[in-house]
Write a sequence for this structure.
């Protein structure tokens, strides 16, 4: 595993400080177009925490509380809005501790990805890392209903990555987005596209 994480860190160096922006909805099926930052947006960061169990590598996801105002009952990464002058890195770690009780000193950060513009106009930076052994989790039930350990190898098979679309009436364009089904869970939008892109990087390492 040490070799895997060191190789993954090298791959992620290509994204260090990247200001490229991808949209969670895209006009081409390959999502190959980058976007210019909109005039108005809110900054946010998420933590993509990689773990390992008997079945292989997994990514920690959260099932959001149904009581939340934004995206209730959806599956997402730990994360949230940045405070004033707060870095993406610090935001991702702070929000992770607030939501699932995983303390900062138990997290080893490997790098980051490009930025993603969500449908709700959040500019999101994914921070990638793994947790040290014997870490403990304590859920903030006001925000997180449960933890899900998503097997990243599920996305190594292209047939498990579904692209759906909707019609953007304001532009009269067909907009695509990723929609993933695993067990009884639906993962879509920004969370799905980050998972797909991260899975591509991981599959090139293992």
């Amino acid at each position: 595993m040490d070799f895997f994480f060191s190789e993954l860190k090298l791959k992620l160096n290509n994204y260090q400080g990247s200001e490229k922006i991808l949209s969670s909805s895209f006009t081409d099926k390959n999502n190959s177009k980058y976007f210019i930052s909109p005039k108005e947006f809110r900054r946010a960061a998420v933590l993509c925490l990689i773990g390992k169990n008997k079945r292989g590598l997994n990514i920690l996801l959260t099932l959001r509380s149904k009581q939340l105002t934004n995206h209730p009952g959806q599956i997402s990464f730990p994360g949230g809005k940045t405070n004033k002058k707060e870095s993406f890195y610090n935001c991702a770690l702070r929000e992770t501790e607030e939501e699932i009780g995983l303390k900062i000193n138990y997290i080893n950060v490997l790098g980051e990805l490009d930025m993603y513009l969500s449908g709700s106009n959040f500019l999101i930076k994914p921070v990638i890392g793994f947790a040290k052994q014997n870490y403990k989790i304590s859920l903030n039930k006001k925000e997180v209903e449960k933890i899900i350990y998503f097997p990243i190898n599920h996305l190594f098979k292209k047939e498990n990555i579904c692209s759906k679309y909707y019609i953007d009436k304001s532009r009269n364009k067909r907009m695509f987005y990723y929609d993933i089904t695993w067990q009884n869970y639906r993962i879509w939008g920004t969370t799905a596209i980050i998972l797909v892109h991260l899975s591509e990087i991981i599959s090139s390492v293992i």
Q: What stands out?
A: The chain has one domain: 2-203. Helices lie at 2-12, 88-100, 189-203. DSSP finds three helices and twelve strands in the chain.
